[in-house]
Amino acid sequence: MSKKIIDHFRKFIEVEPKDEDGILDFFQMKTFAKKENLIDSNTRCKFHFFVISGCLRLFFINNKGIEQTIQFAIEDWWLTDYFAFENQTATEFTIQAVEKTEVMMISFQNQERLLLQYPKLERYFRLIYQRTYSASQLRTKYLFDFSREEFYHHFNDNFPKFAQRIPQHLLASYLNMTPEYLSEIKSKKRS
Amino acid sequence: MSKKIIDHFRKFIEVEPKDEDGILDFFQMKTFAKKENLIDSNTRCKFHFFVISGCLRLFFINNKGIEQTIQFAIEDWWLTDYFAFENQTATEFTIQAVEKTEVMMISFQNQERLLLQYPKLERYFRLIYQRTYSASQLRTKYLFDFSREEFYHHFNDNFPKFAQRIPQHLLASYLNMTPEYLSEIKSKKRS
Known about the structure:
The structure is a homodimer. By secondary structure, chain A is an alpha+beta fold. Chain A has 9 helices and 8 strands. Chain A has helices spanning 4-10, 20-24, 82-87, 108-117, 120-145, 148-158, 160-165, 168-174, 179-187, and strands at residues 28-32, 37-39, 47-53, 56-61, 67-73, 78-79, 94-97, 101-107. In chain A, the strands form 2 sheets. In chain A, strands 1-8-3-6 form a 4-stranded antiparallel β-sheet.
């Protein structure tokens, strides 16, 4: 079982070596092939995923029948549909592997049990959610404030390696533009 | 000092009566007049606000020079610019009282101290952030998926009292439409 998640906990809190195995027991490790779905839309959202290696995306089918990607998760990031996970209901989203991806996954019940048994981890998840939420709050601002071209440049300036790593049609989907429009922006000299 | 915030903690965690005063010592209570700013843009985001009574909004000035509201907070809701709060940097947002509003406010340093002294509250904030983040994730979906008219109906169906309580030009700002367009939608028979 990968201890990479324990390393990540230790960036935020102390974890005693004697607790490592007990904590890891609550998780399952699994590898998904490129384009394999971790969670299908209209099914119960059972798991919270931590990416060990690879990349995930969360998308939904919009009212034009097109896949709209709203989030990516790479190494050391968490992902799920949080509303459906917390309420253990069906999700409107699909979570899919963008490339071959290895995850640590934990069910809702196990996450609750883990936190009751190791309450120190409440702080870890509080800090993770705080950061994730703060990023989401800024992203909402960008959605209102940026043109799609500005959004691309912002993304590319802040995450240059990531912008190159992901398939360009998925980046276009995340930026709410067609792949053709993305190519056009990239080939244009920046004004 | 209002114990309403302690009541809210108790919806999620146990708080022993002997700890109440010690917890409340970390907070300041303050009342803001209608349209008064709690935090101005381009100033350091010092506080996290819990609404005792009234209503707050968070907005920024968009590239057309118009106030774009992206969040409201009513009784029992928390609000700040989380990125600027966590990093103790200047915010790009303004937080303003929509009506006369009484808040409990806590500085970043005090929130950290509070959580170190009463680690049980980590669970409370973890659950609060988890819910806030899950709402934000769904809102991102709506921003992509709903027409502005659908967004209004969704908001009105889910928060009917709130949709009536806030000034209509602010509701229009939140829904990213002009007040005139909002009136038009409201006067139209729903298709």
